[in-house]
Amino acid sequence: MVICPVCGEENPERARFCLACGAPLEGREESSGEERRLVTVVFCELVGLGETGTDPEELKRSLDPYHALVRQQVTNYGGTVDKFMGATALSVFGAPVAHEDDPERALRVTLNVRDAVHQLAESTRTCASRSASASTPVRRSSVGRASARRSARR
Q1: What letter does residue 125 receive in the DSSP assignment?
Q2: Buried/exposed 28-64: b ≥16 CB within 10 Å, e otherwise
Q3: Percentage of the chain modeled with pLDDT above 90
Q4: Exposed/middle/buried for 66, CB within 10 Å: 0-12, 13-18, 19+?
Q5: H-helix or E-strand containing 2?
Q6: 135 - beta bridge partners?
Q7: How far apart are CA 125 and CA 52, in angstroms?
Q8: Which DSSP category does 130 fall into?
Q9: How far apart are CA 135 and CA 27, in angstroms?
Q10: At CB < 8 A and 24+ separation, what contacts does 65-69 make?
């Protein structure tokens, strides 16, 4: 049994947090090799750009400026573009580097991208954007970090 340092509740050995008060049990978090952080995920999607049957190379040329815009906005605000899936961009704020205002940074990016796409849509009358963001706690494993440090020392 593991005793909670906050409330004194007895907890089973496998517990990482106290079953009564939710406090972390001493040494449990470090031994798992993981850390918990709050990340904000942003999806930006360009809609109405290409119709069915659009030439793939032409579509790529049309998407390149959009991809550059999203990448610039995300990196300017300290986020990371995880991937582009056609006209959709997935970005993360809070990992690997966290800031206390990551949710606000993510919303600023979505508004800036929306405004830039709106200006593009006015001139071409062909597209619009949709964005969504959500903040959620995640667990990040430290697996591989020790081996990466060892490799860096060599």
Answers
A1: S
A2: beeeeeeeeeebbbbebbbeebbeeeeeeeeeeebbe
A3: 31
A4: buried
A5: strand 2-3
A6: 40
A7: 17
A8: E
A9: 27
A10: 66/117, 69/113, 69/116, 69/117
Give helix then strand counts, H and E, for the chain: 4, 6
How many angstroms separate the CA atoms of 25 and 148, rounded?
28
Task: Find all residues with CB under 8 Å of 118, minimum gap 6, and list them.
Answer: 128, 129
Q: Which residue has the tokens 């206390």?
A: 100
Query: Cα–Cα distance between 17 and 154 in angstroms, integer?
Result: 38
Contacts of 23 (CB under 8 A, 6+ apart): 4, 5, 6, 7, 17
pLDDT at 19: 92
Walking along the chain (154 residues) 10 residues at a time, the average pLDDT comes out as 86 89 72 73 83 74 88 94 92 89 94 86 69 80 40 42
Alpha-carbon gap, residue 113 to 105, rounded angstroms: 12
Per-residue CA distances from 137 to 35, 55, 60, 93, 94 (Å) = 10, 41, 34, 12, 10
Q: What is the pTM of this model?
A: 0.64
